[in-house]
Amino acid sequence: MAFVGVLWLVTGVEWATKSDFGFLGILPRRIEGAIGIFTGPLIHGSASHLFSNTLPLVILGIGLFYIYDRIAFEVFAWIYVSSGFWVWLSAREAYHIGSSGLVYGMVTFLFMVGLLRRDPKSIAVAMIVFLLYGGMIYGLIPGNGDVSWESHLFGALSGVFCAFYYHRYKTRNRVTKVVAALGPHVEPPLSRHNHTLPGGLEMRYVYRKSEEKEKDRRKPSDGPEESGIK
């Protein structure tokens, strides 16, 4: 996932220049801290902090962008911006950094949207996410002062909102085309019928008529028409 590469690039620059980019985090209710809504998720306080977010972002990103490809970017952007905004508006006055809010947002989105859509593919992804990351619920509880539980909370809420808003959108559109030819000669299609199966699979039936059958249908009768009166 490209976003993970950006995280490592930013951290690499920080290490190479021996700088501290913590000032680019979200500083709640300060105008100068609002830039952190966009830059805060890119900054991590340590290598362990970055490592702890890298694998979940890759796994969840694959689930989001492969299964829900049509809406994935919108969901990702919404979680990114909305969680940061609410942290800026209501969190403790400290610099909030890291992409764990995104992780929580994608976890709750993938889990909730699976329950709402109820198709086998979405449910399977939801169950996998629950088994892998169900224990993250404890990160929503205020405790360790060095952990931004507010980012976790607002990321999770943003994911739930996106699940309710987007769960009716179609996912990847796979088309299976079935052509029924009624004879040896194929003419342009005369009729089409589309049918969408569960899971977004679209079956497209295209019916064609052969030239010979069409001529037979139009050929006038050679014999005299019989009267209905004898």
TrEMBL record:
<dbReference type="GO" id="GO:0004252">
    <property type="term" value="F:serine-type endopeptidase activity"/>
</dbReference>
<keyword id="KW-0812">Transmembrane</keyword>
<feature type="transmembrane region" description="Helical">
    <location>
        <begin position="97"/>
        <end position="116"/>
    </location>
</feature>
<dbReference type="GO" id="GO:0016020">
    <property type="term" value="C:membrane"/>
</dbReference>
<feature type="transmembrane region" description="Helical">
    <location>
        <begin position="147"/>
        <end position="167"/>
    </location>
</feature>
<dbReference type="InterPro" id="IPR035952">
    <property type="entry name" value="Rhomboid-like_sf"/>
</dbReference>
<dbReference type="InterPro" id="IPR022764">
    <property type="entry name" value="Peptidase_S54_rhomboid_dom"/>
</dbReference>
<feature type="region of interest" description="Disordered">
    <location>
        <begin position="208"/>
        <end position="230"/>
    </location>
</feature>
<dbReference type="InterPro" id="IPR050925">
    <property type="entry name" value="Rhomboid_protease_S54"/>
</dbReference>
<feature type="transmembrane region" description="Helical">
    <location>
        <begin position="50"/>
        <end position="68"/>
    </location>
</feature>
<protein>
    <recommendedName>
        <fullName>Peptidase S54 rhomboid domain-containing protein</fullName>
    </recommendedName>
</protein>
<keyword id="KW-0472">Membrane</keyword>
<feature type="domain" description="Peptidase S54 rhomboid">
    <location>
        <begin position="36"/>
        <end position="168"/>
    </location>
</feature>
<feature type="transmembrane region" description="Helical">
    <location>
        <begin position="75"/>
        <end position="91"/>
    </location>
</feature>
<dbReference type="Pfam" id="PF01694">
    <property type="entry name" value="Rhomboid"/>
</dbReference>
<keyword id="KW-1133">Transmembrane helix</keyword>
<feature type="transmembrane region" description="Helical">
    <location>
        <begin position="123"/>
        <end position="141"/>
    </location>
</feature>
